[in-house]
Amino acid sequence: MEIQNYSDVMVFVEQREGHVQKVSLELISKGREIADELGARLKAAVLTAGLTHPVHSLIELGCDEVILVEHPILEPYTTEPYTKALTEVIRAHNPEIVLFGATTIGRDLAPRVSSRLDTGLTADCTKLEVDLENRNLLMTRPAFGGNIMATIICPNHRPQMSTVRPGVMQMAEPVVGRMGVCRNFEVAFSPADQHVEVLEVVKASKKKVNIEDATILISGGRGIGSPEAFPILESLADKLGGTVSASRAAVDAGWIDRSHQVGQTGKTVRPDLYIACGISGAIQHLAGMEESEFIVAINKDEGAPIFDAADLSIVGDVHKIVPELIRILPELGNRNAQ
Amino acid sequence: MNFSLSKEHEMLRELYRSFTVQEVKPLAEEIDEEERFPVETVEKLARYGFMGIPFPKELGGSGAGNLAYAMAVEELSKACGTTGVIVSAHTSLCAAPIYEFGTEAQKQKYLPPLAKGEKIGAFGLTEANAGTDASAQQTKAVLQGDHYVLNGSKIFITNAGHADTYIVMAMTDKAAGTRGISAFIVERGFPGFSIGKKEKKMGIRGSSTCELIFENCIVPKENLLGKEGQGFKIAMKTLDGGRIGIAAQALGIAQGAIDETVKYVKERKQFNRPISAFQNTQFELAGMQTKVDAARLLVYRAATLKEAGASYATEAAMAKLYASEVAMEVTTKAVQLHGGYGYTREYGIERMMRDAKITEIYEGTSEVQKMVISSAMLK
Amino acid sequence: MKIIVCMKQVPDTNEVKLDPVTGTLIRDGIPSIINHDDKAGLEAALCLKDQFGAHVTVLTMGPPQADKALREALAMGADRAILLTDRRFAGADTWATSLTLASAIRKMDYDLIIAGRQAIDGDTAQVGPQIAEKLSIPQVSYVEDLEVEEGQTSIIVKRIFEEGYHRIRVKFPCLITTLAEMNTPRYMSVGGIMAAYNEKQVETWTLDHLDMNPDHAGLKGSPTKVRKSFTKAPKAPGKKFNAEPDAAARLILDALKERFIVE
User: Which of A7, A71, B89, C226 has the maximal Cβ count within 10 Å?
Assistant: First the structure.
């Protein structure tokens, strides 16, 4: 089919056990922007066994049409029924763009769908723009392990497909009373569409990771004052999906086990985020963490050498700042939409 | 003359490096502090074929040759001199003489467990009164029917206590001087064989260095290695090969010290800049690396000659002499460049200096190496 | 049991540094490694070889130097190694890559295909599922654990999600993508390295060996194209603030948001 016969933007609205995922709301907001630029409509494809989230809120957020595929085979998520359903929806609607959240579901589903449709897919986009000259979506993403950024286009195939990570796009304000339609879409599922058997569904929090593998470390030093401060750091680590580590001073003082020690006589770490709390930054400590991607240092002492190594230095009291940070963190955290 | 390594050797080096960084380095400080033989590391070394690198596959080895073996000892020693000498003594001083001088039956019996690392080897030549003057052997071996009876003792034996197989030199004919010394394969468990006191040492403290005690020790006749009277020659040839291992150990210790120092001088700031910016630091490092590279070429040359079946004793002596002296010099300078921190046990550099010293002494002191080299020159 | 492991040789992107003066990537001298997720998959396959005597083939599409990654796999214990290499494969996006790999796989017998979840240079996580689609076989991605069922015709895997996991049964033939967290890969052995270079070989296949439309290979066959690439701004010097707790917390949160650090 000719490229010009594809139009409109579609968002795959991901739900789990009926709960719409926040990333999909972020993508609807972005999808609305893109659709406006293109002078096109925005559609949402919802695949579910039963939605608890009200459909009209998707419309208020910017969808012109919600396409609802409802069937028990769609819970829990398995690849084939979702691929089959979404491919049929796309073939019926011919969107020029389809957006997915880059979640453990999106990154399993989007490639399979793109391959079935023989079209291009770009993963983990951090920026989406439109080239109005040719209606190409400009998809910018990190490459080479995050060391460079690349802008990708899919000039000759439709739909153009992208996955976007949660938290990258901003969720817009809903327009109360906005009008749109919701249509049921029938897909003829059969048991033969189920290619795997789900034996067990287990909810579990991520297991404790050792500090060398952690991507986020909240590290405590002598400046946190006492072992009683570590639970607060633990709490911050939990909320961020990170792990607690420590300087040698804290370990020698018996406040935490040696396996958490970062530094010359401890472990060398290179997390994406290292928050140093009450750590002075002696050379032996720096040797163990200075390669961290982003270093935040909080210390009462303005002259602490750790500030020379940090990207973001805060002169202040760890005991006041960390609880405050924990308090405002929910802005980032919750995957499920409220 | 080809100065580049083959693809296999490049890949072997990568294996040695990743194994050393992940398995050996994390334990180096602890086994030195506790004077503990790293049993768990030896098991892993065995699993990956490090305990029989130069020996043929048919005899349980890895079939990789002598250069590959020297490189392994070098890489292991960069992180831990103790681990390097465990492999070196086992391979060059015990497995090698069995491979080179043993009968088919002895090779089939003893080599596979040693090459696979299921058993550990050691070499007993040195005695309280026979160090550099190795020929002054007092341990005696008397043939009695189908066995020999050994009486005497050995000191400073590396791997003793953990080894299962020992190559032991003993006097079978006092009147014949060095031609009266014979070599025996002695197993832990032979009646009358026990391990004596464990030495407390300056360095390579994780290496088990003990006395061997023979009190009417019964050694089956079949365990005579080579012929009666060949023991001294076997010991000397064995040490020729062992020198390559020790030279590789010294080389590794020296390079490891340089690598740590380079990291340190880039981090350490004084007078508002890293000390790597000062010309003294730069010039010292340049001199150190040049000497270590020269040592490396000597070690690799000796290993390559041995692998090719060519004569190599002089070259091995040169490698050992030079590499050990360089190791001592480089580690001393490395401690100096670390300043006060270099003297503390928080940093591993002082351990490297303590480890380096023994390489100038064992398996033939530097003085002995000079004797070997000059005697070849003045023939 | 016949297993094919799809592997990629990648630059060790953790070791990449930016030239502080020009702001460009220093690509020289970056060591090449077997991608971590793939290596875990290879280790899983080798464990199945240890347990069940499975036959393990490793397959890579790449430039000639990818031979080294395949030798490493052979040195770890793989039985057969195939390098798909051809100038015409260059510039392939994930669609063209997966089509090429699937075409190669079609020439072989297999029960299980294992691919790593994603490569540390491309980071797309697309090739595995796309291969499965082209071969019309079931896929399970994000596998952290697997066991073979009695009869050796199906496996039960632990499939990770953000909030937990599923235990899933899938019959052969199928494809799984593996996570580096799944296991600690074995080292090569000394003897294994010697065998990899002296006894085993790396088979080289080009586009001509494959039954596929040549226009679908490489840059030519790729639906997606790179319009431009640029380095991120070099790490700015650190910023220091004296701030009240609420302002301080806000500064930190904003920095975290900006860097997409939180999932």
Answer: B89
* Local structure of C228: helix, strand or coil: strand
Are A320 and A232 spatial neighbours (Cβ–Cβ below 8 Å)? Answer: no
- What is the token pair recorded at A13? 């609205």
d(C-alpha A146, C-alpha C232), whole Å: 9
Tokens 């796009």 label which residue? A169
Contact A159, A10 (CB under 8 A): yes
Structure tokens at C73: 């796999």
Query: How many Å lie between the alpha carbon of C217 and the closest alpha carbon of chain A?
Result: 13
Question: ipTM of the assembly?
Answer: 0.93
Q: Quick one: tokens of B2?
A: 């080809």
Residue entry with tokens 């359903």: A85
In which region does residue A70 sit, left (phi positive, over 0), alpha (psi from -120 to 50) or beta (all else)?
beta
Nearest Cα neighbor of A10 from A80, A81, A113 is: A113
User: In chain A, which residue ranges form alpha helices assigned H by DSSP?
Assistant: 22-38, 55-60, 79-93, 106-116, 230-240, 248-252, 283-289, 306-309, 318-328, 330-333
Residue B363 is among the residues annotated as catalytic for this protein? yes
Contacts of C174 in chain A (CB under 8 A): 195
List the pLDDT tens digit at each of the 263 positions of chain C. Answer: 999 999 999 988 767 776 666 666 677 778 899 999 999 999 999 999 999 999 999 999 999 999 999 999 999 999 999 999 999 999 999 999 999 999 999 999 999 999 999 888 888 889 999 999 999 999 999 999 999 999 999 999 999 998 899 999 999 999 999 998 899 999 999 999 999 999 999 999 999 999 999 999 999 999 999 999 887 766 677 888 888 899 999 999 888 877 755 54
Q: Which residues of chain B are within 8 Å of residue A265 when distances are taken between CB atoms?
A: 29, 346
Q: Are C76 and C69 in contact (CB under 8 A)?
A: no
- Would you call B223 helix, strand, or coil by DSSP? helix
Q: Does C33 touch chain B (CB under 8 A)?
A: no
